[in-house]
Each structure stands twice: as structure tokens, then as C-alpha cells.
Amino acid sequence: EHELFELPDTALSVAEEYVKQDEIERIQRILHGISEPYKEVFMLSVFGGFSLKDISSIFGKSESWARVTFYRAKQKLSERMR
After folding, report:
1. Of 20, 24, 73, 82, which Cα lies nearest the Cα of 45?
2. How far apart are CA 45 and CA 54, in angstroms?
3. Residue 46 C-alpha from the chain's centroid
4. pLDDT digits (tens, 9 = 90+) for 12-65
């Protein structure tokens, strides 16, 4: 017996990719306006995949500092996205 595989709806996946790319560009524009160190901590964590422990080491700060800074960066981003 053969299994039937559904082909993805190409138009839908292209549209989804466009929306995703548009959202990424919007986030990057907003991030550009966020002050340091919030911007760098956010980008290292989200785009760079660094752990908060790694980020704290990069900045020579405590892990608590990295956690709070990342949280505040997310708040700033969220406020500006509204």
C-alpha cells in the first residue's frame, strides 16, 4: 500500500515566508533604535544563540544582570512594536 503525501500549498508558504521576513525586518528596525546594552544582549541571545551565562561573561557582569537586561530589552521591543 502506498502512502499519500500532501504537497505544501506553495502560495501559502511563500506568503508565510514573506510575512515572517517582514516581521524580522520590522524587529531589526526597532532594535536599531534601542539603546545599549539592551540591543546587544537581546541580539546575542536571540540571534546569536548565546546563553545568559555566556552573555554575562562577555560583558563581565553577573548572570542576574544579563537576565534583567534581556528582560528589559524584551519589554522595550514589545512597547515599540505596539
Report:
1. 73
2. 9
3. 4
4. 677 777 778 888 888 888 988 999 999 999 999 998 999 999 999 999 999 999
